[in-house]
Amino acid sequence: MGSNGGEYLADIPSVVLMTELLRRMKCQSKPDKRLILVGPPGSGKGTQSPIIKDEYCLCHLATGDMLRAAVAAKTPLGIKAKEAMDKGDLVSDDLVVGIIDEAMKKPSCQKGFILDGFPRTVVQAEKLDEMLKKQGAKIDKVLNFAIDDAILEERITGRWIHPSSGRTYHSKFAPPKTPGIDDVTGEPLIQRKDDTAAVLKSRLEAFHKQTEPVIDYYSKRGIVTHLPAEKPPKEVTAEVQKALSS
Question: Its catalytic activity (predicted)?
């Protein structure tokens, strides 16, 4: 809806309006929730967050995407972030918290949010808490997608892709008929750079070193739920709903 009235309600199909109206009515009865999803790469956060977002009418704040959007939109914070990135520096915690602060004011975040990819360190968690406190808000729940490193390694390093079609295989869970070869075209399969054991190992080390203390930080408040992230996605969804209904 442009603020210049360029798009009139009359021009929007009724079914779209009704769907949106029903969604808003459903959303009104939902409790506010401010959630953080924590988990290593491949633990299934990306599968669960859209489900949680729709069920509880929350906005999804993925800090990487938000930073890129702020840079593209050339917001004051985005310009500062770009300066840091151009120098090869990390974007400061205060900047990221500022971008989250800005994003939280959007109407879609009225019922709360899902934070994904932040906070990665205890210092970031403290800064986030300070900012929320100023708004009279706080984090309600931290969902920890707990999974064994060995299972993750099997999940991720087993992924093979047929680059031109995007067809994906898994050497254990969904293997091609002939190892390393696409079923349809007979062309060779590749592994994404991120899906190699070496890359995963360094990402997991960083996760354990930096982010596990964050889980402890929130555990002291009794707001962490440990999810069995190695289970099939449907079972994880059921566990998430159980955690959020309490």
Answer: AMP + ATP = 2 ADP
